[in-house]
What we know:
Layout: H1 6-16, H2 23-35, H3 38-54, E1 56-57, E2 64-65, H4 71-74, E3 79-86, H5 89-98, E4 103-107, H6 125-133, E5 139-142, H7 148-160, E6 167-170, H8 186-194
Parallel strand pairs: 3-4, 3-5, 5-6
Antiparallel strand pairs: 1-2
Amino acid sequence: MAEITQAVTDLVDQFAKLPGIGKKSAERLTYHILHVHKSEALALAEAIRNVKENVRYCKSCYNLAEQELCGLCRDPGRQQDVICVVEQPRDLMALEQTGMYRGLYHVLLGRIAPLEGIGPDQLTIDALVNRVRAGGVEEVIMATNPTVEGDGTALYISSLLAETPVKITRLARGITSGSVLEYANKEMLSDALTGRQTF
Length: 199
């Protein structure tokens, strides 16, 4: 069996630690790095170093930022009286890609998951409540994932904000446009019936 250098073995091991990357994928990535021009490989290494050294959480909404506030919080064109609550920065990015939402966000950095030992104090819920109580917010949109933990987290936050005059809404759920009822599962149909609107 051919001997592989320690440097190659170490890089395969590091790639294999990434989520969704198995041993074979890690080997393919390693050999790709070996075959690209040195400048391209070093650009990847520099991008990783730059992210680890310069990216932090926004002081206001906990989105990813390279300054004290993220670009969305600094944007005067955003609607200041609406906050959309999401679990992770990647959820924020997904909503931004629609181009349909122009308000602010609040990133929880997770969801309440007692079985995993994650409680409300490990999230940014207190910061959200403080933002709302500071005034100027008219609506909080719960955009947590439609899971038991996501719904539980939204319910918990809603109870904390119950005494405030803020309108609390959640993303619509149910049947997607172009789908057929017979192929929808019962959870989708239940959400569609519960969240029905005037025609």
